[in-house]
Structure formats: structure tokens, C-alpha cells
## 1
Amino acid sequence: MIPAGFEYHRPTDVASAIEILKTHGDEARVVAGGHSLIPMMKLRMADLAHLIDLQDIEGLKGIEIGAETVSIGAMVTQHELITHAGLSEALPIIREAALQIADPQVRYLGTVGGNVANGDPGNDMPGLMQCLDATYVIEGAEGSRTVSARDFYQSAYFTAREDDEILTRIEIPRLPAGTGYAYEKQKRKIGDYATAACGALVTMQGGTCTAASVAMTNLSDTPVWSEEAGAALVGTSCGPDAVAAAVAASLAAINPTQDNRGPVEFKRHVAGVIIRRAIEGAVARA
Amino acid sequence: MKDAVDTPETRSAGLKGMGCARKRVEDVRFTQGKGNYVDDIQLDGMLFGDFVRSPYAHARVISINAEAALALPGVVAVLTAADLAPLGLHWMPTLAGDKQMVLADGKVLFQGQEVAYVIAEDRYIAADAVELVEVEYEELPVVVDPFKALEPDAPILREDIAGNMEGAHGPRRHDNHIFTWEQGDKDATEAVLAEADVVAEEMIYYHRTHPCPLETCGCVASMDKVTGKLTLWGTFQAPHAVRTVAALISGIAEHNIRVISPDIGGGFGNKVGVYPGYVCSIVGSIVTGKPVKWIEDRMENLMSTAFARDYWMRGKIAATKEGKITGLWCHTTADHGGFDACADPTKFPAGFMNICTGSYDIPVAYLAVDGVYTNKAPGGVAYRCSFRVTEAAYFIERMIEVLAIKLNMDAAELRRINFIRADQFPYQSALGWEYDSGDYHTAWDKALKAVDYAGLRAEQAQRIEDFKAGKTRKLMGIGLTHFTEIVGAGPVKNCDILGLGMFDSCEIRIHPTGSAIARLGTISQGQGHATTFAQIIASEIGIPADDITLEEGDTDTAPYGLGTYGSRSTPVAGAATAMAARKIRAKAQMIAAYLLEVHDDDVEFDIDRFVVKGAPERFKTMKEIAFAAYNQAIPGLEPGLEAVSYYDPPNMTYPFGAYICVADVDVDTGEVGIRSFYALDDCGTRINPMIIEGQVHGGLTEALAIALGQEIAYDDMGNVKTGTLMDFFLPTAWETPNYTTDHTVTPSPHHPIGAKGVGESPNVGGVPAFSNAVHDAFRPFGLTQSHMPHDHWRVWQTANKLGLHG
Ligand SMILES: Cc1cc2nc3c(=O)[nH]c(=O)nc-3n(C[C@H](O)[C@H](O)[C@H](O)COP(=O)(O)OP(=O)(O)OC[C@H]3O[C@@H](n4cnc5c(N)ncnc54)[C@H](O)[C@@H]3O)c2cc1C
């Protein structure tokens, strides 16, 4: 469990980091909290000659709560997501989800940027960001561009980010009044990735659902946001039939695979339970 | 003067002797990060070893090319079987009478097997060099199923002994067969089964798991070429046995080998065996003339060191209509992996599996165990019970439940009517043991009352109604267990390991000022020996436990002993401690009599002193006596005050307990929530109640892990599927329920202080209690048996098969 040797770089601005990435091509990788990358290096599944540590780049830090948008720097740790009072008030679902990631030790170091950029279908933040309709700000040598979280994930570990680009911030629209939320996750133990997880947001006005968003984690090789699930709820009072329709729509969108957590039929069954709990939880809080 | 005015209670309390919840003296250094583990050892010029391991479970090794590795700056040597062969060290004996490859000799038999040993200037270079060793393999058909291993056309795994049909434990009937071990009366048992009112039959599988101690295995070998002395520090649960084995296999004279077990971060049996890493490090140090350190990483520990269990136990239990058990039959297929590397006493190739009649008065029984080779890691030694008592307890406690289902009886009542009665002890079991003592009915009734058993059953009945009415998706299970252990191996007449009798030892020296040092043949790995053994001495000779240093683990200073595993330290070394202390007390009595100018018989021991009978104001304290031992010329007595005892126990001890677990089982998610767990332990005399409680909590948490998810799983290709802590379940505080502990005290009649050992009881009794709770939840819906681990998907699958998903 000892990684191969590598050069360690510690730039203080994004442009220098991108410069180093450009110079070394696929020999180089940025490291944020290291809690996905370093295990891979220790297992020698990732062999990198250059590691670019992002922790001294001030521009990647901080949480800003704007009137319309919440902006989270890529290097914000999962621990900060839990303890930031303004964020917990503006988007409480982030705290609820972050608390279900791994354990405190991982969360002290693991960052939100690393979590969403990594492309691991087991990570919880990508599904959450799809649920929240977040936008990723990505910088490269040619400047900066934005990609919707819902368009970012292509397959396991493959994303819309180019190798020499850095994800700098995550922009999340604030939610209308009357929005309930829930993040539900089943795992085998503390420190485990999800057997099935689901984030749900439901906006109710005068007893009727006006907006809804449902996204799932670790049930396909990418996070899955189900437009149909939301549509099944909008315009209804979110009674049992509507919830059942939303669950069915969600289940139609996933494609789980067998692993040590269990066979496909089991995962589908659990997903049905978890998705229903998430939607019902969000409705109850709306 | 103070000595004269203190009350007996104050004097007694000041000793912190037996029965005192004395704080662990070890914890000061452990909680401050000041422990001294093997990886803390730093020696000048020390080199590091690391293994090239097989990615395949069964393959021929065609060639090994170490050129590129040797070319890497900082690499000192690369050892292969070819280098060890001239020394005769490419194979080594196992503690079970088999032999095991140190480095792959022509083929590999399990994934993770040691193929080459790289020695480098630091561990980073060693790890890089491991990657550079090129090994060419030719894959062979893999056998992971022990039943398939015994099929006529199964591939032969152990070509080294192919065709040799006489094994270490009798005849072999197949090239992949290791031994058959039979106990009890086969014909009589089968006759009972044929005529019984009721026979319940079931296959009970206890899956393969691993103890996963926090500290992995490792060693530092240092051969001093000037003195010819080899010093070996390591994570050894049996340092003296390691010294003897090292002498036997290396040819180095035993007096030139010093084995030291420093602090050990948990063993649980994982650190009893001798591993290739030790042999390669010793050879490495001899070859390079420098100390060589080898420390496993977590994956290596899980993949290649001693696993636990992997027993397929087919059982038949016969009873009358009323539920009186009339006979028990068991056939076990034991998966030992590629080599039989168990550490059972020689005459017991399946350990003490013949304790499988449990707590019950079963007139006739038969047990047969077939050991089998497969393409899995070797071992079978480990996990808070080396001697298969866990398997036996799980087997009988499941069979009782299976019988209760068949009889449509309450499982608590079925146990009660079959318990061995208190007046039957010492009790001769049908499979050959003499249970020393017990009072099962008292313990059982106390346990049932404590948990309000009738109330729980009523609640469960209501829950079933609610479930059927669609009001809940959670079932409730009540897991019962009454286990009987057999520990303290053991009488030298029938227990030895590699010919070494399983006695143990203690040497005590009292210093002139009345403090003392005691050294034992055992070695603590977390059990708190330095705390509890000092308490035994304190009570036996009346000097405060705080004034006694306890030392273990250095073979140059400690008396010979067989080490710590199988809950044997208290039953055997604890007895030796009491006996050595009594020798000292006997001499102290003579010294006191001399000082008091009375006859030896006219003084008697009183807490911390000898007093003249009938004249309590005339006494000599142990402190005074100790000083006198060093400054008086006492006629007929040698100066000094010390003693040593080698204790050969007359019998095993038989701790027992009653455990009751209440669980809520979610039929949709498969999650099992432990609502409560009550554990009553009877370990005889209780030396330190706080340490007992700690041992019980730890063992129950291991039991929880085993029952609910912890396993070493292999795919059909022999790949380990659970080789990291992501997939191998190690519970954290979050998963750990609250435990309620309780006790009864039935002292062992043959042990000097009546103590029986407790370290393994919670693992032995805990697993069936957790497992039975899960089974019990599904019993009303027709479940008889579902194999552990009861992780989410398997529990879900059980519910699914029973049609509970609508
Ligand atoms: C035991 C354990 C359990 C875990 N359980 C969970 C869990 O339940 N749920 C969960 O969501 N996560 C879990 N994780 C993962 C954890 O949350 C990681 O911290 C996270 O996935 C990655 O964040 P990081 O900052 O550590 O990224 P790193 O490991 O440093 O990087 C991960 C990848 O992202 C890239 N990257 C990082 N930052 C950027 C950036 N700004 N721009 C571009 N690329 C970047 C890196 O190059 C690398 O390829 C677990 C981790 C461990 C060790």
C-alpha cells in the first residue's frame, strides 16, 4: 500500500496549476483532499509522475450565499459543508447529504470539488448536484466555461472535464419558498458508499407540487437525474399514487450492477424503498 | 503503627487484589501513544522486506526474473524458493503437522501467496521493486468449494504430497483430503437417529472470516554475526514456541535465539502461526548481515494470514416428542485452504469441535470432521478461539433452534429441559470431555427474567400481527444462546503443539523492599495481563498490585510457556501465578515464624501479613518478611524470596453463558437493527470485573460483525472479494449496540483460584445469539436455516424467498 514515486507541486493560483497540467499531460493530476485519489495510488491503480496539490489556492475556497445563487469553492471540505451555518440555512439538503459521506476523518479532508470531479458513481455529491441543478465552473488554458451537473457525467470516471482543466466553483440556484428536501442513503456501514441513495426536492404551493427534482447515486455508472420522476409529482398533491409514479419513473432510469453490496434485484428493491423515503421526506418537509 | 490500626477492609482494598475493578496499568502508555509495537523498532542499518504475491489462486510458476528489481538503486536482494532451497527453508512445518511453502516452489495455491521476497534500503524502494519482479505464471483450474475438491476428478492441489495417502492425522482418501477425525459412537448414534420420535437435520455453515487485528503481522530479525545471536522481535502470541520452531527449522541453537514480543495490537489467534515473512526476514538478516524489518499491510493481512472458520457442518439431532434430546450427529467438511496451518493441539486436528454437544445432556453423539485443501489462504487458527469452539457453539445453538422449529416448541424451554443439571457435574460428555462445573439452569432463568422473556414474546406476537396487517415492514427477532466453552489448553497428557506440552509458567521475585516482578510464559495482546496477574499475586501474598511489575514476551528472561490464545492465560498461566505465589507464601510463613519466634504452624496468613494464631497483635507484614529474607541468616532457609511454577492443568475449564439478543429486521432493506443485547457470563472467579466487561464488549462486537457481514469471500477464480476494509466489515462505534452484561459465579473446582477464562466467550456465544435473532424473526414465516453473514442483501433474499415482498 505504498504509491509509486511522484513529483509534488503546490501552486498558489489556478493558472499555475493549469500550466503544470499542460506541461505534463496525463502524467499529472490535481489532488484535492486526496481521499479518492490517494487510495488509488496506494493500490497502484493510478500511477502519476506529478501531483498538483490545490490546497494553497485561495481562489478555490469559500462559500458565498448570494440572493439568487450559492457559490461553493471546489476546495471547500465536506466538513465545511456540514458546519457552515449560512449554507445549512440556504440549502439544508447539502448538510444532510454530506453527513452521510464516509466518516468525520474523510470529511475533514475530502472536498466537494474532488467529490464531484472524480466521476465515481459511488460519490454522493454528483447526484446531489444534479438534484439541485448545479452548474460547474471549469477553467482551462483557454479560460473558463460552465457545464450543468446534469450534463457533466458520461460514464464511470469519464466526465465533460478535459484532463488539463480544473473545476473551480459550483454554482447552485437558491430554492423557492415551500421547498422540502431529503437525502436518503442505505449503506452497509459507516465509511461505505451507497447501496442506493437518492436526493429529492419538492416545492409545494397551496397543496400542489409546483416543482420537483429527484436524483440517484450508485445505481448506474453515473448519477441519474430523472426528469420523469419530477414530472410525475408536479401538478399533484404528492399523494401515494403520484409518489408511486415518481418512484416507478426513477426506477426506470437506473441500471444497477451486482457487487459485494448485492445482486441487481436486491438493489432495485432497495432503490425503490430509498427513493420513496426521499420523496416522502421531501414532501413532508415542504 | 499504621499497619496495626488499619481495618482488614482497608488493608485488603489497598492491595487491589482479586475482585477489584483495578484500572488497566497498560492504558497509560497506550492512550498516550507511547506503546512500543514492532513497527516502532528502529535499528542501525535496518533493511525492509516486502513480498511479491501471487495474483492467481492456482497457477504454476514458470519463471521469476528479478533483474529489473535488482537494478533499482537501494535494492539489496530478492529471495525466491530457489535461494531458500539449499538451506531447506523453502518449505516450513505448520503447527498442524502439515508443511507450507515459504516462497512459491513451482506453483501457487492461493491468491496472495508469497512468491518472492524483496529486501531494500527502505520500504518505498522495496514496494517499487516488488512491481519490477517479473513472474510468469501458467494458470491452473481453481477449486474454492471444499465439496468439489473431493470429487474424483478434482485437480490435485498439493502435488508435493500427491499419492501419499498417510497424513499427519491418519489416512487420506483423496489427494485434496487432509484428515478424517472421528469422535463418539457412530453406530449407537445412528441407531438412536433411526428410532427417534423426531429428527431434525440441517446444514449449518459458518463462513470464512478473519480476525483483522488493528496491528497487522510483522517482525524485525537481527542476526549478530559477531555473537552468533539472532534476535527476533515480532507480533507473536507464542514467543517461546516461535523460538523453538525457529531453532528447529533454521538450525540455529535455541540458546542463540532471542524472541521478543513487544506490545501487540490485538491478536485474536491471527498471530499464533509462523508466517513466511518471519522466515524470510531471518534469512534476509543472515544473508545481508543487517537487521531486516517486515510489516504487512492491511490487504496482505486479510488475504494471506490466518483466517477463521469455513466449516460446513451437517447436523442431525434426535429427540422425543416432548423435546428430550436423545442423540446428536455431525459431519463437518472443513475448508483449510492451501495448507493445513491450524494451530490445534496435535491430537485435535479439528480442535475441540467435540464440545459440540454444548450445554446439553445428550446421551450419545458422533462427530466426524474431514479436512480439505482448497485454493484459499491457509490457516483456520484464528479469531478469539483457535480451537473450533466457536464453530461447535454455533452448530449446537443452531441445531437447538432447528429442533425447536421441528417440535413447534419454544426454544428457551427446549434448552431448559435439556441442560446438564448442576448436580451432574463433573459431567462426562458423549464426545469425551469432563465438564468441570456449571449451573446452567440458574444462569438461564436469571437471563430470561432480566430481559422479560415472556414480555418479549408477547411483543413479537403483536409485531407479527402488525406486519401481516401491513402496519410495519419490520420483524422482531429474539436470539437465544446458552453456550459452553472449553478453554485453558491444556493438560500435557493430551495437549501439545509440535510436541510442546501446553503447560504455562510464572516466576515471581520479591524485592527486599517488598515490591516484586513477575514474569510469565504468556503474552498480552490487549487482555490486560499486567493488570490482572498482579491482582492474583496481590491477593495470594499480600503485596499491593501497584507494587508488582509484570513482564512477558522476552524469551531470554521469561520462563517457558505456550503463549496466549484459546483463553488459556488465566486458566493456565494464571494458575501458575497463584502456585508460584503460594510457594513464596509458604517460605514467607517460615520467615515470619522465625521472626516471631514461634513454630511455623503457629502463624497464619492474614491479607498482607502473618499473625500469631490467637495473638493478632503479634504479626509480621509481608514488607517486613521480604526485607528479612534478604538480611537475616535464618537457619535452614536460603536467603531470597522467589519462586517459579510450571503449571500443567489437570483439566480444561468450561466457562459458560446465557446471551439474549433482540433485533428488528427490515424485510425490504435487509437491515438488522440490534435493539438490545444481554450477556450473562460465568467465568468462575472474577479477577477484575472491569476487564471482564471490556473483554465481553470487544468479543460481542466481533460477534456482531461476523454474524452481520464480516467475511472473507472468494469468487470462482479464487479472487478475494473482501480484501480491504471497504468490503470487509469492521464495526465502528456507530454500528455497535449497547450491551448489558451480567454474571453468575461457578468457580472451577480444579483451578487454584477457581478462574475459567473469559476472553473468547463473547465471540463464541455472541455469534449464535445475533444469528438466532435474525433467524427467529423469520421463523413464523417458515424459515429454518439461512447462512451467515446476515448482511443486507442476504437478509433481503431470505425475505424474498419467503414471499414477504408481496
Ligand atoms: C473510506 C472512504 C469512504 C468514502 N465514502 C464516501 C461516500 O460514502 N460518499 C462519497 O461521496 N464519497 C466517499 N468517499 C470519497 C470522499 O468523499 C473523497 O474525499 C471524494 O470523493 C474526493 O474528494 P477529494 O477532495 O478527496 O479528491 P481527491 O481524492 O484529491 O481527487 C479525486 C479526483 O478528482 C480530481 N480532482 C480533485 N479536485 C479537482 C478539481 N478541483 N478539479 C478537477 N479535478 C479535481 C483529482 O484529480 C482526482 O482524480 C469516501 C472515501 C473514503 C476514503
## 2
Amino acid sequence: MATYEPLILAFCCHYCAYAAADLAGSMRLQYPNNVRVLKLPCTGKLEVNFILAAFERGVDGVFVAGCLEGGCHYMEGNLRARRRVERAKVLLSEIGLEPERLEMFNLSSAQGPRFAEIVTEMTTRLAELGPSPFRPARGAEEGVREMTKQAEAHLTDEAHGCVAA
Amino acid sequence: MIVANRKNVQEIRDMIKGHKRVLLVGCGTCVTVCLAGGERETGILGSALRMSLKLIGRGEVVVDECTIERQCDDAFFDAIGSHGAEYDAICSFGCGVGVQALAERFPNTAVYPGLNTQFMGLLESQGVWAEKCAGCGNCRLGEFAGICPITRCAKHLFNGPCGGSREGKCEVREDLDCAWQLIYDRAKNIGSLDKLEEIALPNDWSTALDGGPRKVVREDQCIAGLGPKA
Ligand code: SF4
Ligand code: SF4
């Protein structure tokens, strides 16, 4: 499929990966533009259902990027996220979808180049795996937008609390 | 509480794949606490099942989710109300009691279990639950320093330990503490070692499951004239 460009959803921690993505931008680093970033106050906020919801909406791959191990602002949010990613991978195999479509990374806010590298790495991997069998006819973009909106509403909803920027 | 864990996605998919509209019903009580069948877990399985069905070419099967307060009490099924009739199958993410309660409430709908109900147990540490009671109907914890030999001794011994107790561990499984070591240690701590000198009598199993399903009746609470259901 010559025209296939994988769509990737990245769950990024506000304190590290999100800032690293910002830095990659201000450093004018080149990386594939097919990643959509969803900011979390901490990757510990991530639940397995967020990941499955993304795949169900047809994204080709998902990565979760949290602080370096030992560097989480909430002590162990990134370690919990890693275990949830592992659990989601088990579920993906049971579903029949390649678990390699999902990965967890750790980086600091100073690692702009690493962010660009991760996006490139995931894009290459997903190009090899091919498009997700759940891609809707109209493309997964809309699903990602809808999910991002929902997540933002969820995070700013007082009942669920949100981290002070 | 009742402890359960989820079934494999493919197992559930194969149970429901012949249906057109399936409602997954989560339970907000025990199985929410043991992270098997609450709102979040039911949502996860819903997503997983929809994707899995699509991959075997059964993407047209509608899989919806809802979670009610409790499945072991008919009153809470009112929350599902008439929606239940819109589905030709229900998959319960409650314990085995919940599955059967749904089957009673929806007599013309296929009902399936989404979980494997394991036991009555206790949270041991985060993410770990341990079996504590087998519901024998005649609790004898008073004789055994508060540790149940029926549930926790691999051989269900009333007069233990057996010869296989080694440094506090059970010979049947090395990850298992010997229940009789625990009983002895606790009896010693609470000064009731003398109780262990007596031979414990065999259990009266007529109060347990052997005679068919049991019923607990509180006559004073039964609605006059109705009595207990036959
Ligand atoms: S003696 Fe019977 S009721 Fe008591 S804890 Fe053991 S199994 Fe449960
Ligand atoms: S070693 Fe202890 S727990 Fe295991 S069977 Fe013997 S008495 Fe029971």
C-alpha cells in the first residue's frame, strides 16, 4: 500500500514527553507528522480502556511516553503506566491485533531529539505492520479528534481533578 | 467479598458470536473491587470484543455495555429496565450469582458469564486476593484460632498438621503457608493452645453444598402470606 501513512496516537506526560515534543518543535527537528499527541497530567492517569478506545477508533499505533524511571512527578505513575501497557498488550494479542502496535517509552523534557526518534521508530514499525484492520473508511483522524476532546473534557472536569500547569 | 477474574477475550467472543445484539452487564460491587467486572473492566472487554468480532468477520454484532450497582439483587435490574429486551444475549461481568440472577430476570434471553468466579476472599496486597472461606454453613473458626482449615489447609484437615508441614510451608504447594502452622502460631499468641489438645470432631457437612443449594430464611422478615419462595 504505497499511500499508507500510519496514524499514531501518543499519550504524553505533561512534565516530560509533552515538553520534549515541544522542544523537538522549537529545535526544528524533522520527524514524521503522523503523530497526534494527547497530553496527560501523568502517564499514571492512563488506563487500559484509553488504549483500547484508540485502537477501536482505528489508529494504527499507540505509544505512551512518560518520565524517565525514577523521575515521575507522582513517584510511580510511569511505572504503573508501563504495567498497564503490558496488560493492554496481552489484551491486544487476545483480540488478534499485533501487540507491537503499542509501546511504552521513557524520556525527559530535555530530550527533544529522542522524541523525534521515537516517532520515527514507531512510524517505521507501523509501516511494516501495515494499516490497522479497524481503520474506518473516513480515516481515523476524526476518531482521534473525538477522543482528544473527550479526554480534555475529562481532565478539566473538576470531579476528576487535573494537575496545575 | 467474592473474587473473580476475567475470561479470555476469545472465549467470550466465541460464546456470543452467534448473536446479533449483546449487552455486557458489569457489577458495581465485589467484582469492581477485585478489578474484574466493574464499569472500567466491562468497558475494556467491550472494546476488546468489538475488535475481536470484527477480525473474524462478525463486525455487525452490536456489543453495548452498562454497569449496575449490584447484580445479586433483583431490584437493581430496574436500571436496565426495558433495554434488556433490545438484546438477544446478555454477558454478565458479575459473579456466578449475578449471571444466574440475570437469567432469572430475562427468561427469554441467552445469558453468558464474562468472568470466572473464584472464591470468597480478602485483599492480601494490592492486586492479590486470597481465598478465606468456603461457606461450609457451620463456621468453626472459634476452634482454630480464627484460621479456616477447610479453606486454607490443602488437605482440609481438622486435626493437623499433616506430616508434610515444612518450616511453615505446605507440602502441596511451596508458595502456600501451612494453615496448621498459622493456626498453631496464632493459638499460641492468643493463649489458646489448649484448645488444640482436643480432637476436633468431623464436620457436619449436611450444612454445606452436598444436599443441594441452601437457603437462608428469616421468617420474621418474610412478607406475610408469601413466605419463602418454594
Ligand atoms: S469454617 Fe466454614 S464458614 Fe467458617 S471460614 Fe471455614 S469454610 Fe467459612
Ligand atoms: S502442610 Fe499444612 S496446609 Fe499443607 S496439607 Fe499439611 S497441614 Fe495442610
## 3
Amino acid sequence: MFAIPLAWLQLKRETIRLLVALAGIGFAVILMFLQLGFQDALFESAVTLHQNLDGDIFLISPQSTSLIAMKSFPDRRLYQSMGFAGVESISPIYLGFGIWKNPFWEGPPTSQTRSILVIGMVPGDSVFLLPEVKANQAQLRLTDVVLFDRASRTEFGPITEKFEALKATGGLVKSEIESRRVEVGGLFNLGASFGADGNLITSDLNFRRIFSDRKKGLIDIGLIKLKSGADLEKTLERFKQNLPGELRTDPKKTTNQTQEDFVVGDVRVLSKKAFITLEENYWKESTAIGFIFTLGTAIGFVVGTVIVYQILYTDVTDHLAEYATLKAMGYKNRYLLSVVFQEAIILAVMGFIPGYILSIGLYNLTRNATALPIAMTLNRAILVLCLAILMCVISGSIAVRKVQDADPADIF
Amino acid sequence: MLQPIIAIENVSHYFGAGRLRKQILFDITTIVEPGEVVIMTGPSGSGKTTLLTLIGALRSTQSGSLKVLGQELRGGSENKLVELRRNIGYIFQAHNLLNSLRAWQNVQMSIELHSEIPASESRDRAESMLEAVGLADWATQYPSELSGGQKQRVAIARALVCNPKLVLADEPTAALDKKSGRDVVEIMHDLAKKQGSAIVLVTHDNRILDLADRIIHMEDGRLSSLDVTPLANG
Ligand SMILES: Nc1ncnc2c1ncn2[C@@H]1O[C@H](COP(=O)(O)OP(=O)(O)O)[C@@H](O)[C@H]1O
Ligand SMILES: [Mg+2]
């Protein structure tokens, strides 16, 4: 009906103000993208290990709450489950944090050390879905040989580069973990998480050599693979029936959830999905991380709302005489309100675009600097666009009240 | 006889409330015929603008009866008043153009209120109106790029483009120099005469009184009709 796009023409006419507004909205958009991106990356990095485990059912100690707080349990339970119908194979997994020494450190005299997650596995078992681990795990039969995660943080040293360089000459990267000399026999790709800055894989024997106080017969995770065609639910039911001890389930969980996550005696039995959920919930609920990032996102939202409100309010104030003129000519209040809301939506969309592009760049920077799996996703882009529009509509609805002040009787 | 464009009967107006309530207009009664050019003079503060805003449906009528274009304004709904405004051309002391719009777009803002004019014609119509006020070459300029007289002529084009039956102008020459002031009023007068629009024009400028069919005088909120025929080219 209205051929003249007054909202856009008014915004365009004040170039500087438009740029300031777009910068402000872009800033808020970036803030929200970073906060939400970090949060997703954190939760995703926390379960990368779980996702790459080649198992269907997992046993852990009922006291284990997360990968960074694992309690060992007797491997008897794992061997018992070998006899249950539907079970194809079982593998023990050992976890421990050890101090790794950067072997190439040339800085100040003191050495550079950092805590790394060491994963112990039986060299003949298939524990990881990672092809590089499968290809290299024969190396683990050798004494004091480890596989190194190339996506570990850089503080562990230029292991990857040196490994590739030495490979040509037949040499190996040597380092120390928990003051024990080890050799890097191969590389794999898993990624750092908030809990672990890097990962090592080694054999169960080497694991006990590194952590000499760990007792034989105590494991951290029991990995169970089902026969192809075996039903997960039915097999879990057999675990419920056949493991010794009292059955306990979390009363806060639904029946569907307790089917895949229950405690029998001294072990907790989890499906892979439930194992992942357990880790995610630890970070979401037992730490302040979710809250902090939500708060960060909210701050971005509020900052954006205030900036847009300032801009729209100034704009309405500047055009008050013109709006009064339009009212005198016979334009209704509704038209003027729609002009302000159009301005708000235009600002939101125009500010979103540079914010979106810059955020992709910042994600790349962050990924390279922190080895966190942070990337733009369509869902997050849509969420932030909606937040940006909501932000502008809220400021718009406060600013439009000023339009009521435009009194056509004042302009004669 | 034709229905008058404006019929004012015993209109009074008050500003303020309670003890501060002050009467500004006292029992105004007059009539403006279709096509008539009426000039209102009077000292500053006498109530001229107040009367004009009442006629223009920009302020609600408090007492008496005020009929504009056949419609009673007193007690009229906000919606009705807004609709009525679309049929009146306003020319303000300051030009009040929209600074973000080019000259032709300013004129088109007025056309867009009239759905009977097809969108395809509206730009042509805006431009020919600008041509009529002598701004054919200035149609794409922004107000800030125009002189005071030119701006006031754009405002005239905007007010007259939809052939309003009534044009209200409040000291349209106040911000202009003598020569361009006279030009602007002449353009407005000629176009309105051609379209058959009535004009109510408030002015202090004695040199343009000759354009009036009738002069009315406001003093302390009371209207006196100076039924003297204006001096020919006085
Ligand atoms: N909105 C208002 N509130 C209160 N008093 C007003 C208002 N507008 C005008 N007045 C008063 O009404 C009187 C007439 O004003 P006005 O109609 O503007 O006179 P004129 O146009 O003849 O100079 C003046 O005394 C002025 O102070
Ligand atoms: Mg006045």
C-alpha cells in the first residue's frame, strides 16, 4: 500500500547513526554467538571421547560422575557380563590424568609440564572408532609406547610436527609422563575438552607402568559390544537380572531412562546414549558453566537491546516534527508505529549479517587456539537471528511510545 | 446555494485546567464558501493559530459547532478526524518536509493517503505538481538542498496535489524574504483558484492582502469581519 519505504530511507539518511547502530547490534550478535558457541563446544568436547568409543553398553562405578572424576571398580563384573546372551565382546578401559613433559621446551630452565588424560586399553581389542587408533594399536604391545592426540593443546609440545619429521629418519618422539620415559608410536585425532587438555592412548600394561599405584583388577570403564542383531533393551534387561546385588534406579528419571541407566550392586550400567547424557548432564547441571554462558548470552542481549533502544529513541525524537506533520496530513498512529518497527527489523537483520560473518571468523580463531570443536551451526544461526530480531522489537516497542508525543496541533 | 466549506458557530476554546483555565477564543462565528480565499490577520497571541488547528481537525472542538466539508467536528471520533485531514491541504509556517525524502517523495507521501489514485500514476502526478510550482528540475533534490522559498513550494505541491477542497496556511511566508514570500503565496493562490479550493490564510504581511476575497480580523480571541473589499493591488 505504501510505496515509499520511509523506515529504510530514514535510516539510510543518517549514515553515521546507522553504522553505529549496526556496529552495536553486530557486537551483541557476536557476543551471543561466542557465548552459545563456547557452551555448545564445551558440551560437545566433553563427550567426544564417549562418541568415539566402539561399544554399546558401558559399566562404570556408581560413584563416577564424569570423565574427570572417575572411580575404579572391580573388573570381575565386566568378565561376568561376557557370559550374558547377546554380548559379543568386552574390553576394560583405564583412565588417569598424568603429568606430561614437553620434550621440546626451550624456554626458561624449568620444564613445561601439563596434565594429560591417559587412556589404557588392551592392544588387541577394538575400543575406539578412530581409524588411526585401529591402524596403530599394534604398536601398543611395545613397552612404554603411547599414541598421541594431535588435537591436544599446543602446550604439550610440537609432538605432531616432530613426529612427522622424525618418521622419515626412523626416529621416534621421546617424552616423559609421570616421570616415566615413553615413546610416541603414532597419532590419532580426538580433541581437547574443558576437562582434558590432551589425550594419550596406551596399553593396559603400559598404563599400570605409568600409574604404578594403580591396582590390577580395577578398571574405570567396562566396554561391552553386542552381537550384531542383539537387542539392546533385552540385553540390558539381562544385566539387570543377572548382575549380583541390589537394583537401584534414579527415582527422578523416567522408565525409559532407567531402562538404559541403572545401578546393580557395585556397578552402573549404561547404554552408549545414557553414557553420553551422563557426561553432558554433569557439565550442564553440576557445574556453573551452563549458567555462566547463559548469563553471557543474556548480557549480549541486554546490551544490544539498550543500544537499539538508544538509536531508535534518538531517531524518533529527531523525526518527531515530521511524524506530527504526517499525522496532520492524515496518517494514522498505526503507520508511524509500523515505521518504527520496520526500522527495528531492518537494524536487526542488517546488524546480524556482519556479526554472523565475524563470528565465523572468531570461531575459526578459537578452534585453532583452543582445539575446541567450535563451529557455526544452522540452528545456532537461526537462534541468534531470532534473538537479534526480538532484541530490536523489544527496543522498538519501548521507543514507539515516544511517537504518541507527536502532536499535529503543535506544528502550526 | 452550495454547502459552505467551513461553518463555524459560537466556537469558544479554553486552554489549561482548573484555576489556570483561560479562554482563548470567544464565540467565533463565520462561514467560508467553496473556492473562497479568506485572509485572517491579527496581532500575535490573538488566537489565529488556535482557530486554524480547530478547523483543521488537529485539536478537538470544545464548544459550539464546527462543520468542515460538511462534517461536524465536535465530538467526532479520532478516526473520523484523521480521515477528514486527508481532504485538507496544510501549509505550515516552517515547511515541515520530511528530510529523508526527495522532493517528489515528499509530495507522494500525500498521494499515498488517497487509495483512489493508482500507484502507477502517483510519481507522474507528484512530478507534474512540482512542475506547477516551478520545481520541475528540483524533483529529486532533498529538502536540505533547496532554498527556503523552494522548500515552501514543495510544501504547497504536497498540500495541493490531491485537489483538497480546503487549504489551511499559517503564516507561510514568515520564514521567507519579501520577494519569495509574495511568489509563494501567488503560486498557492493561483493553483487553489484553478482547482476551486477554498483557502484560509493567516498572515501579518500587508502586501499580500490584495489576494483575498475577504479579510477577517482576530483580536483577543474575537473575530471581526472586515467586509471592506480589498484594495486592488494595494
Ligand atoms: N497549547 C497551548 N496551551 C496553552 N496556551 C496556549 C497553547 N497554545 C496557544 N496558547 C495561548 O493561546 C493564545 C493564542 O495563541 P495562538 O492561537 O497561537 O495565537 P496567534 O496564532 O494568533 O499568535 C496565546 O496566548 C497562547 O499563549
Ligand atoms: Mg500563530
